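Problem: given the chain below (154 residues), write out its structure.
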Amino acid sequence: MINLTIARMEEQHLEAVADLEAMCFSTPWTFENLKESLENDTSYFFVALDDDDVIGYIGVSVVADSCFINNIAVYPLCRRQGVGTALLKIAILTADVMGTDFISLEVRESNYAAIALYHSLGFEEMGRRRAFYRRPQEDALIMTKIFEKKGAKK
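Solution.
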């Protein structure tokens, strides 16, 4: 059973996150890419920990009134145990607290499990990027969750 904790990513987590990237993605972010993003004032990274072991992570960028999920990854053996949901919820909370109008991401059109998870948290398909992914080439679905502004009329 996982002893799940979500925490802000720190430099000590970079190597484990880079390893996770290499395991999960055909064109992974490098250690250097992750380090640069961690140092960027518009980026927010969180890790999912099982005790002290990194089992997942999410990175978002907040620019003006927009929030974009750059990457989310969970170790294969830890999937379907609430780790991805917890990471997405902290990203959604971060975007909402920062006052953004929406949070958005791209996902491989064949990643049915991830698409179902995003739908369950209020994301909707808003578009498609043709041939966005390489190795293998595949379209990306653009999925977005729009925040209802407080005090706004329906």
